[in-house]
Amino acid sequence: MLPRPLKQLGQHFLIDTNIVRKIVALADLSGQETVFEIGPGRGILTRALCGVASRVIAVEIDRQLYEHLRDHTRDCANLELHHGDALNFPLSSLPEEAVVVANLPYYLSTALLFRLLDHRDRCSRLVLMLQTEVARRLIAGPGSKDYGVLSVLTQVAAEVELAFHVSAQCFRPRPEVGSSVVKLRITRPGLVPPAQEKVFRLVVRASFAHRRKRLLNSLRDEGFAPAAVQAALARLRRSSDCRAEELSLEEFVQLAEALGQPME
Ligand code: SAM
């Protein structure tokens, strides 16, 4: 018997095969690729992926679901099912150019996305179902209320497309929030040189840490020297009154380059 869905693990299972087809089509698999799936659940997406991918590696945290799926997918010779937390899965063991396809557990979607982006050298694209609110943040640009750390850190690493929305009726149990599918195509090289990434993340997080404050004050509060910030803003032809949400990706890259490290 199938175990009852656990709300705390974000278990909203897809029941609409048309949506499954659309997700698989969006992944645009060649037949030679390895797919990494987070949270296979009852396996509706997993089975479809096994039909078109060369290999599917899936990790499920719920032991009962994992055992149920293992026992019911013995016919899927190209499936490697793991029991565990995707946050601890050794992503560096994935083959290069893997394709990530997942209906993510919403309680963990941003943490999982950041982790996947940290290991983007292993993958070429990601097709993810997540909350519409998070999808909007992923595609937001300067001036939008949704523009923030998630938008900037994702868009410097990938081209983001909001592909389609999914009705709550397509899941059991139904989620209380809207759902959307996004596609992220990893860009190589990304906008930020690898050696600069740490500082870049620090600057972006510090910039948005106090949304209502001026960028100058937010960065000062996070340890950056006001004179250096002022000089960097002047180089960008930005006034010292500007706020983080006004800056484009390219401006954040230049700001991080100019600021280097925060003061001790
Ligand atoms: N893929 C299935 C589908 O589309 O019907 C299930 C999707 S459901 C939204 C999310 C799945 O992720 C659940 O099976 C849940 O148990 C699993 N999950 C939750 N947290 C997880 C974690 N940290 N690591 C791996 N799987 C997790």
From TrEMBL:
Residues 19-188 form the Ribosomal RNA adenine methylase transferase N-terminal domain. GO terms for cellular component: cytosol. S-adenosyl-L-methionine binds at residues 12, 14, 39, 60, 85, 103. It is an enzyme of class 2 (transferase). Keywords: Cytoplasm, Methyltransferase, RNA-binding, rRNA processing, S-adenosyl-L-methionine, Transferase. It catalyses: adenosine(1518)/adenosine(1519) in 16S rRNA + 4 S-adenosyl-L-methionine = N(6)-dimethyladenosine(1518)/N(6)-dimethyladenosine(1519) in 16S rRNA + 4 S-adenosyl-L-homocysteine + 4 H(+). Gene3D superfamilies: Ribosomal RNA adenine dimethylase-like, domain 2, Vaccinia Virus protein VP39. GO terms for molecular function: 16S rRNA (adenine(1518)-N(6)/adenine(1519)-N(6))-dimethyltransferase activity; RNA binding. CDD domains: AdoMet_MTases. Its EC number is 2.1.1.182. It is found in: Cytoplasm. InterPro entries: KsgA/Erm, rRNA_Ade_diMease-like_C, rRNA_Ade_Mease_Trfase_CS, rRNA_Ade_methylase_Trfase_N, rRNA_adenine_dimethylase, SAM-dependent_MTases_sf. Pfam families: RrnaAD. Belongs to the class I-like SAM-binding methyltransferase superfamily. rRNA adenine N(6)-methyltransferase family. RsmA subfamily. NCBIfam families: ksgA. Specifically dimethylates two adjacent adenosines (A1518 and A1519) in the loop of a conserved hairpin near the 3'-end of 16S rRNA in the 30S particle. May play a critical role in biogenesis of 30S subunits. This is Ribosomal RNA small subunit methyltransferase A. The lineage of its organism: Bacteria, Pseudomonadati, Nitrospirota, Nitrospiria, Nitrospirales.
